[in-house]
Design brief:
2 strands
């Protein structure tokens, strides 16, 4: 039990360090450098009312958010249902839908780090 706790603390430390560094880099980049819209080829400069957290929900996050809010649409049938279902449950509990997706993603990453570490210990020594 204490071995698992030590592994979890190590994974949590790696996770938090990575997230803090990534958040700093992303915030600095989004608030400093201009962005080019890929469709209109128009150059956008950072605005003071930048919605920082919304920027973490792009790409497939928009599809998952749409499924959680409105159900499946014809072009969204390729996405598995567990993630949007968990987002919907957390949003019904009072958490905003974008933050519920971020929470699920980050907790899943932390658990994956823990179990990957444990899986690696089955084949290799702790020094590896």
């Amino acid at each position: 039990m204490t071995k698992n706790l030590a592994i979890f603390k190590y994974c949590l430390l790696l996770f938090l360090g990575w997230r803090v560094a990534l958040s700093f880099i992303a915030y600095f980049g989004l608030s400093t450098f201009p962005n080019i819209d890929p469709y209109s080829k128009q150059l956008f400069f950072p605005s003071p009312n930048l919605d920082y957290w919304f920027r973490w929900t792009n790409w497939d996050g928009g599809h998952f958010r749409g499924i959680a809010e409105h159900g499946y649409q014809p072009e969204q049938t390729v996405f598995f249902p567990l993630y949007p279902l968990l987002m919907k449950i957390l949003s019904l509990a009072g958490l905003e839908i974008n933050f519920s997706g971020l929470l699920i993603s980050n907790v899943s990453l932390l658990l994956a780090l823990f179990f990957l570490y444990k899986l690696t210990l089955l084949d290799f020594s702790e020094q590896v």
